Amino acid sequence: MKQLQRTSRLRTAAVGALTVCGALVLSACGSDDNSGGSGSETSKAAGNISCGGEGKLLASGSSAQKNAMDVWTQTYQSACDTTQLNYKPTGSGAGIQEFLQGKTAFAGSDSALEPGEVAKSKKVCKGGQAVDLPMVGGPIAVTYNLEGVDDLVLDAETLAEIFDSKITKWNDPAIKKLNPDAKLPSTKIQAFHRSDESGTTDNFTKYLNTAAPGSWKHEPAKAWAGKGGQGADGSSGIATNVKQNDGAIGYAELSYATGNDLNTVKLDTGAKEPVEATTGNASKAIADAKVVGQGKDLALELNYKTQAESAYPIVLATYEIVCDQGNKKETLAATKSFLKYTASEDGQKALAEKGYAPIPEEIITKVRSTIDGLK
Amino acid sequence: MATDHPPAAADPAHPAVPLKGATRKGDRIFLGLSRGSGIALLAIMAAIAVFLTWRAALAISADEANFLTAFEWDANATPPRFGIAVLAFGTVVSSLIAMIVAVPVAVGIALFISHYAPRKLATPLGYVIDLLAAVPSIVYGLWGALFLVPHLSGLYEWLDDYFGWSGILTYEGGAARSLFTAGILLAIMILPIVTNVSREVFRQAPKMHEEAALALGATRWEVIRVSVLPFGRSGVISASMLGLGRALGETMAVATVLSPSFLIHASLLQPGGGTFAQNIAAGFKEAGATGRDALIASGLVLFVITLLVNGAARLIIARRKEYSGANA
């Protein structure tokens, strides 16, 4: 009897294991692969890195930078094996918090420091303060899923009205006007926004608020303020839902759009041709930004209303945050050497492959000279 | 214990010594260890409670809106405005839907395993249900978002067609990411817990009662109705409360399938609403100092709700003690 029971137990365990494996395989089908290129480029770049310092280099912050950090870490680590770099994508808020508590060497953030945070930073940065270094730019793509429409042009006004539930059907005259040749169905528009607080939402609503102030009256914020629509968790949640629903529209970093084969909206910015969301076009828009940071701080004010040829204005510029003076002695050399690499030509070039936009030459030169002067 | 019950009129030659015998070294060490860990546990709990209450008090005193009734959550704004009304509603409603769906099914499965299924089938079935309980909630969440949500629109339309007149089941199209969907997903998640505990209770139903019922000419169903179900009732209630506890606190699965907003719709099928745990998961990463305290305050409210629910369950069970035997 005992023997019998044991074999049946074994058998059920096997059945169970099979069921679980099946479930895993199923869920794996839906996971998003957002890493565009392979690691082929990494070995080439390794030559120009000057290593410095040793030991652990801790950093945390913006999850929008995660893929960029991954590439950089991999390349940097293969050249400099005395430093162990560890970037935790905890979100910008938590990243700044940890940096201000002195737990990390630098923070990644989707938005520049607030005045209050700069004041607090004087505690950690002995004799100095925290500064913003723009390092990673990224286009925010507006993705949509509409049967029979592969080419869609929208402008800031219509986007604002769509995301604020003022335009609710795809064949609305405002959309028709911008797409005279498209066959627009009468499908209901399902607008998806981020349900978690995020820098992507912050930048997207900043764009709507600046470029279409008449149609978007909500204050830009990390939490979604628009009316109606549906919320989804994370950029991957947006991508999944846009893919699943006919008539859906949403916004996410470009890598999520390309990784999920989603159509992206072309923007009518007032330039001659509608602008597509590409990394190159995003860099052109960032080139139109003004540096508003004081002293060594290089916080940017993006020009969302830019009408420059093929400049894609819905971009986010993310920063690395370090002390201009008073960085921790143990990590200063390593921080400088790593940031020098990320701001270098090779470092910026590696970005484009992952759906990020390199920071344009003018600004990145300033970043480099600030990094050289870090103490 | 030994001191509570002195041996009345004991042998005068051996006063109380045999009962007090716990004086060997090992006994003392064990006593110290267990007493120490008991005290440490209480101290840690108290420290956590003090910390949470303090942070929550900070947030609530900074709150410009009514913490209990406001329909908004702008905890990071200056001045911060937030309220838990929507979260409390969403948490309770999604958990209730989960209970309404899961408990009858779970009791059915438990009865099938304990009283109907042949042994060869019952044992593996029991193991499979145990396995379901071990699946991490994020996997349920992914399955919910990728499979359940796209396949629920049909059910939603049907509900709208036949019950739309009620006002609470109207559906206007769009992705089915409402409190109702969250409730169904939660039902699937709590099913294994409720089933397992109920099954164990039904198994312990006294054989004598069942045989007596059979001897009186009862059918299988009548046996279950007159002997097994009354005996297991309090056990099923405890099992449901365990499940309800999980449903109230479930985070990732709800965060993946629900489209949250700080509005309460009359219809359960409309996207919107939110739960405490989901809101904390969504807001924590980018929260500022006040925002974080506000989330902690909302967590405390969830704690109180859970406490009330458990207290209610204890009351119900205590009232039905006569049936419960060993399972009170």
UniProtKB/TrEMBL annotation, chain A:
InterPro entries: ABC_phos-bd_PstS (IPR005673), PBP_domain (IPR024370), Phosphate-bind_PstS (IPR050962). GO terms for molecular function: phosphate ion binding. It comes from the Bacteria. One of its GO terms (cellular component) is ATP-binding cassette (ABC) transporter complex. Residues 54-345 form the PBP domain. GO terms for biological process: phosphate ion transmembrane transport. Phosphate binds at S62, S63, A64, S92, D110, S198, G199, T200. Residues 1-28 form the signal peptide. Keywords: Phosphate transport, Signal, Transport. Pfam families: PBP_like_2. NCBIfam families: 3a0107s03 (TIGR00975). Belongs to the PstS family. This is Phosphate-binding protein. It comes from Streptomyces reniochalinae.
From TrEMBL, chain B:
PROSITE patterns: ABC_TM1. Residues 1-20 are annotated as: Disordered. GO terms for molecular function: phosphate transmembrane transporter activity. It is a multi-pass membrane protein. Residues 88-313 form the ABC transmembrane type-1 domain. Gene3D superfamilies: MetI-like. InterPro entries: MetI-like (IPR000515), MetI-like_sf (IPR035906), Phosphate_PstC (IPR011864), Phosphate_Transport_Permease (IPR051124). It is found in: Cell membrane. GO terms for biological process: phosphate ion transport. The chain crosses the membrane at residues 38-62, 82-113, 125-149, 179-198, 247-268, 294-317. Residues 1-18 have a biased composition (Low complexity). GO terms for cellular component: plasma membrane. The keyword Transmembrane applies. Signal peptide: none annotated. Keywords: Cell membrane, Membrane, Phosphate transport, Transmembrane, Transmembrane helix, Transport. The keyword Chaperone does not apply. PANTHER family: PHOSPHATE TRANSPORT SYSTEM PERMEASE PROTEIN PST, PHOSPHATE TRANSPORT SYSTEM PERMEASE PROTEIN PSTC. Part of the binding-protein-dependent transport system for phosphate; probably responsible for the translocation of the substrate across the membrane. Belongs to the binding-protein-dependent transport system permease family. CysTW subfamily. This is Phosphate transport system permease protein.
